[in-house]
Amino acid sequence: MMEFEELQQIWNSQNSKPMYALNEDALHRRIDTKKNQASHITNISELLGIIANACSGIFIVGMNLYNRSQNIFLYAMAAWMLGTSFYFLVSRIRRKKTGNQFDRSLRGDLAYAISMSTYQVRISLLMRWNILPIAILILLGMWDGGKSIMLAAVLLLFFVLVYFASGWEHNIYKSRKRELETLQSRLDSAN
User: Fold this and answer.
1) Cα–Cα distance between 57 and 137 in angstroms, integer?
2) pLDDT in tens, 67-122
3) Residue 103 — φ and ψ, nearest 5°?
């Protein structure tokens, strides 16, 4: 009787192991796909943040110097954009360093994907709030430069629309992060 129970346990473990391994492989591939997707989006966001802000800041400084502008708000905006570009660069370097700390197991890749999604959510929130100081500095620069109120109103409407559109994008990143965290909690509860 004892021998039968042992054989049944071995049989059950052999039967369930290939199915578990197959599901684990499929799950690992799915997580790897999500990790690569998050990495791709994060890289593009960072590079856009670095290049666009640096080019804009340099352009504004160049135009101010060329025109010998006395508009302090435009210099402040150039400094803000160059500072934002530098922040993106430092964040990117830090993120790349932390990426090497995760092992390449299923759980390690999942933790890495969650870490990258958390970073992407933070970056998108920063980019969203970054619209506010840029809009204020541009509008103050226009006011100091004596531009028309109609042009300022159109620009204000543009910034409001960009702010709401960035909120939609931010919610997409939050949803992806939540999906990965749900998967992690299900894996933790299964063990």
Assistant:
1) 13
2) 888 889 999 999 999 999 999 999 999 998 887 788 888 888 889 989 999 999 99
3) -80, 170
Residues whose CB is less than 8 angstroms from the CB of residue 179 and which lie 6 or more positions away in sequence, other chains included: 34
- Dihedral (CA of 139, 142, 148, 154) sign: negative
CA dihedral 160, 161, 163, 167 (to 10 degrees): 140
Sign of the Cα torsion 25, 31, 34, 40 reads negative
| Residue burial 59-88, b: 16+ Cβ < 10 Å; e: rest | ebbeebeeeebebebbbbbbebbbebbebb
Q: Which residues contact 42 (CB under 8 A, 6 or more apart)?
A: 95, 116, 119, 120, 123
Running DSSP on this structure, what letter comes out for residue 104? S
Within 10 Å of residue 147's Cβ, how many Cβ atoms? 14
> Which amino acid type is present at position 95?
R
DSSP string over 13-26? HHHHHHHHHHHHHH
